[in-house]
Task: structure prediction
Amino acid sequence: MISNRNAVLLAASAVVALAGGAAAQTPPPPAAAATGAEAAPLYNPDQLPAQRGKVEEFTLTPRGDIDGLILADGTEIVLPPHLSTQIAYSVKPGDTVVVHGLHAAALPLIEGVSVTDEATGRTVVDNGPPAPGAGPPPPPPPAPPPSADADVAPSAPLPGLTEIRGRVRMTLYGPRGDANGALLEDGTILRLPPPEAGRLTDLLQPGRTLVAEGSELVSALGKVVEVRQLGPSRTQLSLVAGPPGPGPGPGRAPPPGGGPAPPPPRP
Result:
């Protein structure tokens, strides 16, 4: 017969073995298991106002990333560019979508948080920008304007730029409601830095006919032009300063050739 002490030890050993086996089979906690690319959103976007409409076309950044949608009723949906790939695979022009987001008070503008394609049921949710190093590479630096101090451009076209003529269908905006470009009636997207778009806002109003020169990018998603000159006619073009960045002053690029600027003349 086994003594009482030995029986207790055997029972304790059995409990430990069972506990160890159960721990080995216990799934990891949700925080540890959530290692996939599609993490659940922290907040439920369905709590935000919804807008339903048919997609006419994408809006694009100067580098060609999708940063929004234009609906058939003229509503602009602003989206962060880091959702570009997901939107391209989930939505296409002609689809009906339901967008949850923040509606502007005085503009047909929505800062989108989620987009659902009714035909496929696919939903794209903004969970914030990707982790450092996981997103697309930064865009190349903008080409410098020919003269940062001039206001009116010469009548001859600038080398390497494309000339666009057209009528404005609608002004385009950023998430803060500041103008940053225009959509022409032929579907071309013009992009300008917000300060320059504000300065030239009269030219970006619906119905205005304009001439623009800039760097053109054409892809399966559409056509976008990063504007360098803009005016009501070929002989009335104003230079458009590039976005602020590193260099010898806001909106100014390094001198041509990449070398240092020449020293100022001696007094």
About this structure: The radius of gyration is 28 Å. Residues 14-37, 138-155, 247-262 have pLDDT under 50 and may be disordered.
